[in-house]
């Protein structure tokens, strides 16, 4: 009964490619890496264009160099602290806090989210508490963080973890709570015991949501990091920005802000790459970026 | 064709179901009596919303009846179990598993070991004609192929009875015909007991030993019609057309609420 292939064609695929819906090959993505140079140029048009405009506007004197130093000044500033090693010191401190905080957040928020999402009792027990805690912005925690952990790494790690934990928790709860009941029914009909449902069905089914939570959590954690470093630390990119302002070095303020942008971009793309690897089966993640 | 004296494989006795949601009671199923013999292919035919899925899900053990009891081999059905394989209209494949892993799932989760699971999965994937697609994920398959996986996944568990809830209902007409033919061919090889829900008269005539006609909601069985013609059946043969007219009228009567002439084929249950 080798009818499957014909039928796939009949099911709506115009070509004779075996699976009707096709493997989502890179060629299907309009801006896939395969397009090479051309694609890269399209991606670069906006950032390069903006930098150029900014530089030109500064050269023409439309923007005060103190309020917004031109990119050339920022580049000189960058070179200055990059060569004397201070930049790397700050970046290293921030990276450590970010990674440590994120790992702590993941290891607490994912299991907690699974518990709350899976057990109706825990959901009810924690409901009001979570509703009260979630709206408190990360910045509001800085004072108590310094009281608890003092000035330094611990305060920053705490705020990063807190900033990351909230989206991770919310998305994990949501993913676990809203697993399609039909998967659970199918699994039970196939002989899955009640204890195995969580591991075999609920967790894999919730994984895309958990992953969204991780990615949003990582993005959210930079706010916590920068605020903590501005007020509660003597190193890190946040401290760099704060200190530069006190020294009237607005070029270094710009450099610090851009470093946050670069760190955020790199970490976000790393998560995205990881997501593609882990969630090949899931269409939601393979289409966009 | 059916030996009435043979003990029933599946038996429903006075099975009824009332759902209560938001304080309102919805009678989905009025008391139903049904016996399906070992090796018999029974189609439940009725308009949508008449309680076909409810009856099937009670036999599956996914919901408990409000009254009456369902038994398999004389033992009461108290919950879901792998000796009753359920095929869903929505396929319900696990999207995070490949075709191979989906079909291996049942044997694996029941502790038969990886080797045995692989052996069974390979056999069943070949039977449903999906060799070469083992490493595909469900989202890479067409609807027809998904349902082939759904059927292979259930067969890998070697169930005693197969419960199918409008398995081809979401497919286009051509794919549906191909799958009906293939299912019939495979069923003839093993002749497991099948309880198959459909709202298509053609499908019921093509597949069933007996067609159980259900009334519009609240559902009850209004007629049980044997289909005697030898398989494979030609739906354009005169006796098929007569039967089709008969069954169509029985079903439409239910939808219209009209009272037609008693049918000579009609075999009243209550
Ligand atoms: N879980 C439920 N809660 C409330 N009503 C339900 C539920 N399941 C089914 N029903 C109702 O019971 C009736 C029969 O449903 P169903 O068995 O799915 O019909 P069919 O499969 O014949 O289309 C419908 O009116 C439906 O709305
Ligand atoms: Mg139904």
Automatic annotation (TrEMBL), chain A:
Compositional bias ranges of the Low complexity kind: 11-26
Annotated region (Disordered), positions in chain: 7-29
Gene3D superfamilies for this protein: MetI-like
Pfam families: BPD_transp_1 (PF00528)
InterPro entries: MetI-like (IPR000515), MetI-like_sf (IPR035906)
Membrane topology value: Multi-pass membrane protein
Residues annotated as domain ABC transmembrane type-1: 91-271
Biological process annotations from GO: alkanesulfonate transmembrane transport
Subcellular location: Cell membrane
Principal subcellular localization: membrane
UniProtKB keywords: Cell membrane, Membrane, Transmembrane, Transmembrane helix, Transport
GO cellular component, one term: plasma membrane
Transmembrane domains' residue ranges: 37-57, 95-118, 130-151, 157-176, 254-274
SUPFAM superfamilies noted in UniProt: MetI-like
Role description: Probably part of an ABC transporter complex. Probably responsible for the translocation of the substrate across the membrane.
Similarity annotation: Belongs to the binding-protein-dependent transport system permease family.
Name this polypeptide is given: ABC transmembrane type-1 domain-containing protein
UniProtKB/TrEMBL annotation, chain B:
Pfam families membership: ABC_tran
Similarity remark: Belongs to the ABC transporter superfamily.
Assigned keywords, A-Z: ATP-binding, Nucleotide-binding, Transport
SUPFAM superfamilies: P-loop containing nucleoside triphosphate hydrolases
Chain ranges of the ABC transporter domain: 10-241
Source organism (scientific name): Rhodoplanes roseus
InterPro entries: AAA+_ATPase, ABC_transporter-like_ATP-bd, ABC_transporter-like_CS, ABC_transporter_ATP-bind, P-loop_NTPase
Molecular function as annotated in GO: ATP binding; ATP hydrolysis activity
Presence of keyword Cell division: no
Name this polypeptide is given: Nitrate ABC transporter ATP-binding protein
């Amino acid at each position: 009964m080798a009818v499957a292939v014909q039928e796939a064609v009949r099911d709506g695929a115009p070509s004779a490619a075996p699976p009707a819906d096709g493997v989502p090959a890179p060629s299907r993505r309009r801006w896939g890496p395969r397009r090479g140079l051309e694609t890269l140029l399209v991606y670069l048009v906006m950032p390069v264009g903006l930098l150029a405009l900014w530089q030109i506007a500064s050269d023409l004197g439309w923007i005060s160099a103190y309020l917004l130093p031109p990119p050339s000044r920022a580049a000189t500033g960058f070179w200055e602290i990059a060569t004397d090693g201070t930049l790397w010191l700050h970046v290293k401190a921030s990276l450590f806090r970010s990674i440590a905080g994120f790992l702590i957040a993941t290891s607490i928020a994912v299991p907690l989210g699974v518990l709350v999402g899976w057990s109706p009792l825990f959901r009810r027990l924690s409901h009001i508490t979570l509703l009260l805690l979630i709206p408190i912005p990360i910045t509001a925690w800085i004072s108590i963080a310094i009281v608890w952990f003092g000035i330094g790494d611990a305060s920053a790690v705490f705020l990063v973890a807190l900033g990351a934990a909230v989206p991770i928790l919310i998305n994990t709860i949501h993913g676990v709570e809203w697993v399609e009941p039909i998967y659970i029914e199918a699994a039970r009909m196939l002989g899955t015991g009640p204890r195995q449902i969580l591991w075999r069905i609920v967790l894999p089914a919730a994984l895309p949501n958990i992953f969204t939570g991780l990615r949003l959590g990582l993005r959210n954690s930079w706010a916590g990091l920068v605020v903590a470093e501005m007020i509660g630390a003597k190193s890190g990119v946040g401290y760099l920005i704060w200190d530069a302002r006190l020294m009237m070095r607005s070029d270094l303020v710009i450099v610090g802000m851009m470093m946050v942008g670069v760190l955020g971009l790199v970490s976000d793309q790393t998560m995205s790459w990881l997501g593609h690897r882990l969630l090949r089966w899931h269409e939601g993640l393979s289409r966009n970026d | 064709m059916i030996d009435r004296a043979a003990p029933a494989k599946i038996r429903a006795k006075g099975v009824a179901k009332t759902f209560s949601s938001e304080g309102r009671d919805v009678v989905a199923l009025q008391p139903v009596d049904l016996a399906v013999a070992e090796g018999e292919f029974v189609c439940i035919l009725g308009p949508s919303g008449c309680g076909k899925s409810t009856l099937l899900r009670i036999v599956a053990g996914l919901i408990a009846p409000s009254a009456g009891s369902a038994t398999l081999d004389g033992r009461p059905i108290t919950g879901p179990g792998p000796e009753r394989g359920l095929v869903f209209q929505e396929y319900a494949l696990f999207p995070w598993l490949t075709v191979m892993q989906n079909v291996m799932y049942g044997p694996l989760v029941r502790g038969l070991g990886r080797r045995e699971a692989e052996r069974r999965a390979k056999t069943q994937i070949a039977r449903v004609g999906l060799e070469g697609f083992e490493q595909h994920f469900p989202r890479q398959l067409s609807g027809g192929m998904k349902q082939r996986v759904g059927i292979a996944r259930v067969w890998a568990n070697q169930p005693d009875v197969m419960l199918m809830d409008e398995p081809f209902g979401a497919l286009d007409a051509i794919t549906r015909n191909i799958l009906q033919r293939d299912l019939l061919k495979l069923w003839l090889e093993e002749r497991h007991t099948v309880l198959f829900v459909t709202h298509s008269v053609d499908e019921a005539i093509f597949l069933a030993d007996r067609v159980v006609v259900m009334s519009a909601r609240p559902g009850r069985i209004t007629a049980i019609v044997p289909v005697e013609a030898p398989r494979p059946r030609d739906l354009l043969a005169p006796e098929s057309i007569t039967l089709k007219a008969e069954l169509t009228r029985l079903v439409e009567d239910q939808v219209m609420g009209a009272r037609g002439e008693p049918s000579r084929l009609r075999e009243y249950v209550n």
